[in-house]
Design goal:
200 residues, alpha+beta, OB fold (Dihydrolipoamide Acetyltransferase, E2P), de novo design (two linked rop proteins), five-stranded antiparallel sheet
Length: 200
């Protein structure tokens, strides 16, 4: 197997002394995992931030082997990870994506939606500019994975978007993350708390 594609890094987990296991969302191949040698080293640490857009190369001798991954940074979301609200939003969007999508199943619309959402989070002046996109992305994940639901009405003000965000909490926990190990929903709770603080 030899794959080259643009990708969004959605998760990075330490492996051994200096390596990482990366999970990446691609438009053509869906969610893929790869072993990144030196992923925790000084050179690659800035690349291994969830949310970053990268040029990915995956190589494996067989389909049963975890591929080796080489990543080159194309767009960093790192500068926004020092800001509490954007950092919470990027963390949640990436954690949700990494946790619920099956590997090697392409979802081109989800790839494009996630890329657009992350760009909005990083470039909008406030959550007013991206919260509707977050709600739309969560609803799209539910639909794409077979749990139905109507497209949310994205008209209205920030309070309406926060209510729509709250309304999706239960179906996400019940359908998408019911069998997930670890408390992925904690990232969503943290984001929700920051949104409420912003409007108080």
């Amino acid at each position: 197997m030899n794959i080259r594609a643009p990708a969004i890094l959605v998760a990075s987990r330490a492996h051994g002394e200096t390596a990482t296991i990366a999970r990446l969302l691609t438009e053509e191949y869906g969610l893929v995992a790869g072993y990144v040698a030196g992923g925790r080293g000084r050179q690659l640490r800035p690349v291994m931030i969830p949310g970053n857009r990268v040029a990915m190369e995956l190589r494996a001798k067989s389909d049963s082997q975890l591929p080796f991954a080489k990543l080159e940074l194309e767009e960093s979301r790192g500068p926004w990870m020092t800001e509490p609200l954007p950092a919470a939003a990027v963390t949640w969007a990436c954690a949700l994506t990494a946790s619920v999508l099956p590997e090697r199943n392409p979802y081109p619309s989800l790839y494009q939606a996630l890329d657009g959402l992350l760009t909005a989070i990083c470039h909008a002046p406030s959550a007013r500019g991206w919260l509707a996109a977050m709600v739309a992305y969560e609803a799209m994940l539910l639909r794409e994975l077979g749990y139905g639901g109507a497209k949310p009405d994205m008209a209205g003000d920030l309070d309406a978007h926060i209510e729509a965000f709250r309304a999706l909490h239960r179906p996400i926990a019940r359908y998408l993350l019911a069998d997930t190990k670890g408390d992925v929903m904690a990232a969503r709770v943290a984001l929700g708390e920051r949104l409420v603080r912003m409007v108080e």
